[in-house]
Write a structure and sequence with these properties.
single chain; alpha/beta; 2 domains; eight-stranded mixed β-sheet; monooxygenase activity; FAD/NAD-bd_sf
């Protein structure tokens, strides 16, 4: 028997994959229903992992938007650059969760919503909730997010660290006139002296909807401020992300009602304890990374695939996650090199080399 703590992307798809392979599993999720949230981008590796886990391709494609044009960077004072698509698709998070939940339900996965875990014994594999013992003497896979209870018990020194930026997501609810390429996710912003732009603004439009976000270098917001807000409450901060794209940003804000605001945080891997025992970490609980290069959700899905393979072939799930740690470390080093190559480098610009605002 496997108990999964957390019914987000990783926990739901892992539970569904195990149930489809007739492996007994129970998922506990503290929220009363499948989560929603903003939106995300998954690359071709994530799509392939979902296919290998057994998630049908058709419903995934039906709720997502392809990005064959890849990524376009428009950063001052550097100019333009681009990065190719690697099978990237944009997903509204709620729609992706609906597909994964239906996949899990089709195998009769036992997902118990509204169960908050209160403590966990990492030696015995015992999980307690507000109603008493939820699991005992079992393998517990903790996919309980960046503020993981299980990680706090296993590795109390390995805490999530603020990555220096706040991210704000928005989705338009009314038509907005844009004349840019709908196959490309566009980034606008200003480069600073550090490894990250001082601020950046990104967007991608579909036929009827535009998805946009901004990342701003600043002090973290309080826990109470994380979540949904009226767009007007953050309008000044959003406009400041890129004054050169004021027309584009203004048009998108005018068509948006609500934004989702969060701190960018990372869970470090360099000081991680080798996976072992009855409690294993998965996804953001083990290696959360601030939103960049479509990595976070893909890494969680690939964790689910590695664990599914181990549990259904009789190999060690702990060793599978140890191997994942090695892969992730190498991948992050590679992504840092790709980012440095794709990001425009500062150059001299003439006064008449203006950035277009993207509106008609």
């Amino acid at each position: 028997m496997v108990t999964i703590l957390g019914g987000g992307i990783a926990g739901t798809v892992l539970g569904g994959a195990l149930a489809h392979r007739e492996h007994p599993v129970t998922v506990y999720e503290r929220q009363p229903a499948p989560g929603a949230g903003a939106f995300m981008v998954l690359d071709g590796y994530a799509q392939q992992a979902l296919t290998e886990l057994g998630v049908p391709t058709e419903p995934l494609e039906a709720v997502s938007h392809p990005m064959p044009g890849g990524f376009g960077f428009h950063y001052l004072p550097a100019g333009r650059n681009a990065a190719p698509s690697r099978g990237h698709r944009l997903y509204p998070r709620g729609d992706l969760m609906r597909v994964l939940t239906e996949f899990a339900a089709s195998a009769g996965t036992d997902i118990r919503y509204g169960h908050t875990a209160t403590d966990i014994d990492t030696d015995t594999g015992t999980l307690w909730g507000t109603d008493g013992v939820l699991a005992a003497d079992e393998l517990i896979i903790a996919a309980d997010g960046i503020d993981s209870l299980a990680r706090a018990r296993l590795e109390p020194a390995r805490t999530a660290a603020y990555a220096g930026q706040v991210v704000i997501y928005g989705t338009t609810t009314r038509p907005v006139p844009l004349n840019d390429d709908p196959t490309v996710m566009h980034f606008h912003g200003t480069l600073g002296d550090g490894p990250l732009p001082v601020a950046s603004f990104g967007h991608l439009r579909t036929d009827n909807t535009a998805y946009w976000f901004t990342r701003v270098t600043r002090d973290p917001i309080s826990v109470d401020d994380i979540g949904a807000h009226p767009v007007d409450a953050w309008a000044d901060t959003i406009h400041a992300a890129d004054p050169s794209a004021a027309g584009l940003i203004g048009a998108l804000l005018e068509a948006t009602d609500t934004v989702h605001v969060a701190n960018c945080r990372n869970v470090p891997l360099h000081n991680a304890r080798r996976p072992a025992g009855r409690v294993l970490l998965c996804g953001d609980a083990d290696h959360a990374v601030s939103p960049a290069a479509a990595r976070g959700a893909r890494e969680a899905i690939e964790d689910a695939l590695a664990l599914t393979t181990a549990l259904t072939t009789g190999t060690s799930p702990a060793e599978a996650m140890a191997a994942r740690r090695i892969e992730l470390t190498a991948e992050r080093e590679k992504q840092a090199r790709i980012y440095a190559t794709a990001m425009p480098q500062p150059t001299e610009r003439s006064d008449d080399d203006e950035e277009p605002d993207g509106t008609e």
